[in-house]
Specification:
The chain has helices at 34-43, 48-55, 94-98, 109-116, 130-138; strands at residues 12-14, 56-61, 64-69, 80-81, 85-86, 122-128. By secondary structure, it is an alpha+beta fold. A two-stranded antiparallel sheet has the order 1-6. A two-stranded antiparallel sheet has the order 2-3. The radius of gyration is 16 Å and the shape is globular. The structure holds iron/sulfur cluster (2 copies). One iron/sulfur cluster is lined by residues 23, 30, 69, 77, 79-80, 86, 88, 92-93, 96.
């Protein structure tokens, strides 16, 4: 039997407006893998240990220790610059690249529209196909 079509079978619209909402405000978690930490360290010309000490912290989550970027005072991501945006855009962690097609966001129409209240890029702009959304959600970096 074929799997049932997802609620987003017709695709979803998203084009980032660069508003910065998702990189600013209250502190959150921007998870990154050790490979991503190494790539960011190399991008910044830093030794991996120095990068981890300066820009990341470890948090216990779901019974395991995970690495997240730190925030500036006020909660903005440490790599967000007002007026410029993400200063490590080409090397940003997977969860930044896969937004808003995260598993928990595309889980239901309601979850999608809840998140869209904070992200003006959702429900506008480019139409993304359902198979791309499903693949992204299955490996969203969270
Ligand atoms: S909140 Fe949405 S539109 Fe704004 S920067 Fe983030 S992804 Fe782009
Ligand atoms: S790494 Fe870049 S895209 Fe990701 S939260 Fe920080 S400023 Fe935003």
């Amino acid at each position: 039997m074929n799997a049932p079509s997802p609620w987003f079978a017709a695709g979803l619209k998203f084009t980032c407006t660069q508003c910065g909402n998702c990189c600013t405000g209250a502190a959150g978690f921007t998870w990154l893998s050790e490979d991503e930490a190494d790539a960011l360290a190399a991008h910044l010309g830093l030794d991996g240990e120095a990068f981890r000490m300066r820009y990341t912290r470890l948090v216990w989550r779901d019974g395991q220790q995970k690495r997240t970027l730190i925030e500036k005072p006020g909660g903005d991501c440490v790599f967000f610059a007002r007026g410029t945006g993400c200063t490590v855009y080409g090397q940003r962690p997977k969860q930044c690249r896969t937004w808003p097609f995260w598993g928990r966001i595309v889980a239901s129409r309601e979850d999608w529209h809840d998140s869209a209240r904070e992200c003006p890029g959702m429900n506008r702009g480019a139409l993304h196909a359902a198979d791309h959304i499903a693949r992204t959600a299955a490996d969203d970096g969270l």
